[in-house]
Amino acid sequence: MTASSFMNFINTPLTIKNSTISNRLLLAPMAGLGHIAFRELVSEFGGYGLLFTGMCSAKAVPHENPAVSPVFKWRTEELPHLVCQIFGPDPESMARAARRIEKEGFFGVDLNFGCSVSAICKKGSGAILLKSPDLAVAIVKAVRQAVEIPVFVKFRTGWENNVTPAVDMARRFEDAGAHALVFHPRIAPDRRSRPPVWDHITHVKQAVSIPVFGNGNLFELSDCKKMYKQTGCDGFSMGRMAVARPWLFAQWTRGFVPDEHTAFNAALRMTQLLVKYHDERTAVKSFKKYVPYFAAGFKFGHAICKELLKGDEIREIQDIITSLAAQKPESALRPNLHLFS
What we know:
Function: Catalyzes the synthesis of 5,6-dihydrouridine (D), a modified base found in the D-loop of most tRNAs, via the reduction of the C5-C6 double bond in target uridines.
Radius of gyration: 19 Å
CATH superfamily of the largest domain: Aldolase class I
Domain DUS-like FMN-binding: 26-286
Structural class: alpha/beta
Shape: globular
Number of domains: 2
Order of helices and strands: HEEEHEEHEHHEHEHEHEHHHHHH
CATH topology of the largest domain: TIM Barrel
CATH class of the largest domain: Alpha Beta
Cofactor: FMN
Strand content: 15-25%
Distance between the termini: 33 Å
Strand order of the largest sheet: 3-10-9-8-7-6-5-4
Active site: 115 (proton donor)
Helix content: 40-55%
Catalytic activity: a 5,6-dihydrouridine in tRNA + NAD(+) = a uridine in tRNA + NADH + H(+); a 5,6-dihydrouridine in tRNA + NADP(+) = a uridine in tRNA + NADPH + H(+)
Number of helices: 14
């Protein structure tokens, strides 16, 4: 496949249920990172197919007030392209949350069966549901029956290094009514300690007729091309690299060319957007979660990270950003994985 033909593929619209997205790149749901401020930053560059919220508790969503919630919050203009991800342990709470999400006008709802953080799994949610296949399938079925918007399922290979259960789950999720799958080919205990096994995406894709989006170590456009050639996936879910470079969607779909000012201008804009939506303390805390990902885009990222984490007020952080930008640090083609948590 030539570079131009692959670019044509990425920019080919895709229908999910009865709705169409403009291209094959998704912003992955990321807890603590995919908040309203970051999504607005991505939107200012453009070029994405869909945006996803961070993880929202299904039990909380029916009663959440977007005016004060740090997670269940959105801009009206992003709703036609925004999917809300929810986590929960049972079909009833997940279905109730999905109804609220549909009522608010989201593009779709995403069911989290991939988070392997112990705090989530101990609540019977996230990746732990892959150990209870019948319950996971019941959740998908209940949500599908509750709403008309597209239903996505985000899941991992499972808990053992064997793709067979994941293939079986993919088929069962489709049979239960899922309209698209976002597959992360790592086992839950690994988190990100070992490379994703892209060949697992191949098996999942071959098992179903609904769209399958691949996720895992997509750092350059060439990585997406390799994943597509190897797996035949329908699109790509971009996580950590999108935080490091929120312009990558525009770069990969519209030909946007970043310059030496792009990264630091984006970091400054992030501070402004965080203050727009949050109080100072919350804004600083959120920015510090963003810092390691931003710093990973530079050759000497650890030093940049260390400097940015010194700031305790937004104004101070902005001064540090300006000072670092003046030094013109060299960017890295591929990220420093030691900074990607």
